[in-house]
Request: fold
Amino acid sequence: MISEQTRARFDREVAKYPADQKQSAVMACLTILQEEHGYVSAESEKVVAEYLGMPPIAVHEVTTFYNMYNQRPVGKYKLNVCTNLPCQLRDGAKALKHLEHKLGIAMGETSADGLFTLQQSECLGACADSPVMLVNDLTMCSFMSNEKLDQLIEGLKSAEAKQP
Ligand code: FES
Reply:
């Protein structure tokens, strides 16, 4: 079940496309549910499939193809480190290892305090800036040496500690 407000948001997205191509709004609808729930559950995929008249597996394929969709709850800060080949050649994997060590979690896990989720990602389109990472799907961080990674984590932790 979706709220009337969510349905209205879906309707607005669908209206952007010809009536016989409403499945074109699949990414927008998934994004809306992720904004509301923090991740895209199997139930959310089902809701979108029903709403758009798509097979549930087709919606699942979209969710699993793009790693900006969270398939499970994530921490407040989602750190996606690029480990694709060009970045591998320029310390991408080392950056991921450094973060695993610093945060005490393995790739794919969330820290016990719920602050950080660490993931690897495919090419972020900034290979020349490697090591690169994306924070919360929006903020691109380039040339992430171990020192800069430490600064980032410490900065986020200290900002959290100052929250009322
Ligand atoms: S391979 Fe990492 S940004 Fe392109």
Remarks:
- The chain is about 45% helix and 10% strand.
- The CA atoms of residues 10 and 51 lie 9 Å apart.
- The mean pLDDT is 96.
- The chain has two domains: 4-65, 77-162.
